[in-house]
Write a structure and sequence with these properties.
single chain, about 600 residues, alpha/beta, ABC transporter transmembrane region fold, Rossmann fold, six-stranded mixed sheet, four-stranded antiparallel sheet
Length: about 600
């Protein structure tokens, strides 16, 4: 059986410190990979900004002491000169801090946007490389949905506090140096009185963490409801059905349920923070009264009292900023854990090493294949054994749910059979390198993509290595019968295929199907798989398309899934699948002569045309 996704994550403590350190490490790695110079500049500028707090405090002390001394001094000009010099230095330092603050905000904004863009790229790379069982796993969908939903907001909320940490830290250090030199015990008391606030916030945010985790499925429901209400691609059906009001009411209930519960947690945290602030506020008030009292008695200068007063106020402000930054980092722990979980997911199955050889000397062979989807109890495919020869075109028919599309998914290597194996050109497909194996497959899925970009790109995406070869793109369009439609567009092959872009048009379902077929043919794979390729095309056009397709794939293996017997009867051989088993095999005439399931289905469809 396939194993669950494995993780390569460090063990992370559920303590506040453990979470903060984890987030710091993860965001730093992402930021450093984006722009090391920008990260270095932010750290250095923040450090300088924090350190300049010390000279400002000291300059303030000197000005007051010089003014007081100058009042009774005979050299008042000298006192004015000294005050002017110190005030000039103060203005210069303040100006530098102001410039640093402006530059920092610009750098932080740039870094945040670049990190958000980087996360988009990382997620795109990861999702495009994950196997299908992982992508379809409900646990993965829950966590990935949260990452998608919160990426833009969370990255900004992380970059700002993380980059502010050096400034807050060195501002605190500057204040502590002055207070510590005056009386070390005061520093210990201030820190001790700040601990209750840290504990209150840590507990509250842990409660939010648990709340967010427990509401994962509700968030997904919120996201899907909002998506169906807000998207612009399909606005006809909701109007006919009249379900918009119902969906809006459902969205309002979900929003109120989630936001009300979250607000209760945050309201409680605000009340508790206000309570634990009281002792700290009283202490700082008494400390500052004491400072100016001893200054009046001449034990310290008024300038020293003012400096220590400003230092304590600066400490309180910087410490609160530091705690706020750390708590904001702590608050984003859940997002970073989910993001790291996604980015560190490894494949359930190791990649092979063999590269397929072309052209094929052998065909496709399924040997006793059994398969059921993860967590499902019933088998979808049961002991399927078939052999397809090189350069043979075959069709697979059967009723809905018989296992036709599942068979194709296994042949594509998206899933692994629980029993048996699948050989392509004599090699078990599990031995092939995935990317190399997929290069030999040209597959038109029933639920194909409708790329809204230019017509040339939409076809050329079949083989991006040859996307610039316009003549070959046009050739594929001719083969699928969509060339005339494209050349009739204002911009021809450079015309966007969506009204969301200027000058864009919306192809019909049948036209989209021809474009997707052209994309499949453009890839020029060794095995061509078409799953209901003409379900939206009229019968006359279908016959024309298949005459071309069969002719184009004479030197390839063609596998066709279709409900239209007018199409499948052209195949060299037809496999009839029922209940997950191949119950009949032969040409159209052979199967009609057997008077089995194929003959029954054929007659039922033919009767519908009479």
């Amino acid at each position: 059986m396939p194993k669950k996704p494995t993780l390569r994550l460090p063990k992370v403590s559920f303590s506040a410190i453990g979470q903060i350190l984890f987030v710091l490490k993860e965001i730093f790695v992402i930021a450093w990979s984006v722009n090391p110079r920008l990260v270095s500049a932010v750290i250095i500028l923040n450090t300088v900004w924090g350190l300049t707090n010390l000279p400002l405090l000291y300059f303030g002390k000197l000005v007051i002491d010089i003014v007081i001394h100058g009042i009774v001094s005979t050299d008042k000009i000298g006192a004015v000169r000294m005050v002017a010099i110190i005030l000039t230095l103060t203005a210069a330092v303040s100006f530098v801090r102001q410039v640093i603050s402006r530059v920092l905000r610009m750098y932080q904004s740039n870094l945040s946007r670049r990190c958000s863009a980087k996360v988009e790229v990382l997620l795109g790379e990861k999702v495009s490389g994950l196997d299908i069982p992982t992508l379809e796993d409900s646990a993965f969908k829950d966590r990935y949905n949260k990452v998608e939903r919160e990426s833009s907001q969370r990255v900004w909320n992380l970059i700002m506090p993380v980059s502010d940490l050096p400034g807050a830290f060195f501002s605190i250090l500057s204040s502590l140096v002055l207070i510590f030199t005056f009386n070390p015990l005061i520093v210990l008391v201030v820190i001790a009185l700040s601990l209750p606030e840290i504990m209150v916030n840590a507990r509250s945010i842990k409660a939010e963490y648990e709340f967010e985790t427990s509401r994962s499925s509700r968030y997904r429901l919120w996201g899907w409801t909002s998506y169906y209400l807000g998207r612009t691609r399909n606005y006809f059906e909701p109007r006919i059905l009249g379900n918009a009001k119902y969906l809006i009411n459902r969205l309002v209930r979900l929003q109120d349920e989630i936001m009300s519960a979250r607000e209760l947690i945050r309201n409680k945290r605000t009340r508790l923070r206000s309570l634990v602030d009281i002792p700290n506020t009283i202490f700082l008030l008494l400390f500052n009264i004491w400072l100016f009292a001893i200054a009046l008695f001449g034990r310290i200068t008024l300038g020293t009292a003012q400096m220590l007063y400003n230092a304590s106020t600066s400490f309180q402000s910087a410490f609160e900023n530091l705690i706020g930054d750390l708590l904001q980092i702590y608050e984003n722990y859940l997002y970073m854990v989910d993001l790291s979980w996604v980015l560190h997911l490894s494949l359930r199955k190791a990649d092979g090493k063999t590269v397929p050889k072309r052209p094929f000397t052998k065909g496709v062979e399924l040997q006793g294949v059994w398969f059921r989807y993860p967590k499902a109890k019933s088998w979808i495919l049961k002991d399927v054994s078939v052999e397809i020869r090189p350069r043979e075109n075959i069709a697979i028919v059967g009723e809905n749910g018989a296992g036709k599309t599942t068979l194709i998914k296994l042949l594509c290597g998206f899933y692994q059979p629980q029993k048996g194996r699948i050989l392509v050109n004599g090699v078990d497909i599990s031995k092939y390198k995935r990317q190399a194996y997929w290069k030999i497959l040209s597959v038109l899925f029933q639920n194909f993509e409708e790329y809204p970009f230019t017509a040339r790109e939409s076809i050329g995406y079949g083989d991006v290595d040859r996307i610039s070869k316009t003549k070959e793109v046009v050739g594929a369009a001719v083969q699928s019968g969509i060339h005339e439609f494209i050349t009739g567009l204002p911009l021809k092959y450079e015309n966007p295929l969506s009204k969301e872009f200027e000058g864009g048009i919306e192809p019909s379902k049948g036209q989209w199907q021809r474009i997707a077929l052209a994309r499949t043919l453009f890839k020029n794979g060794e095995i061509v798989i078409l799953d209901e390729p003409t379900s939206n095309v009229d019968p006359k056009a279908e016959e024309e398309i298949f005459d071309k397709v069969i002719d184009l794939t004479r030197k390839k293996i063609l596998i066709l899934i279709s409900h239209r017997f007018s199409t499948v009867r052209r195949a060299d051989r037809i496999f009839v699948i029922d209940g997950g088993r191949i119950v009949e095999d032969g040409s159209h005439d052979d199967l009609l002569a057997k008077k089995g399931l194929y003959a029954e289905l054929f007659k039922l469809q033919a009767k519908g045309y009479q």
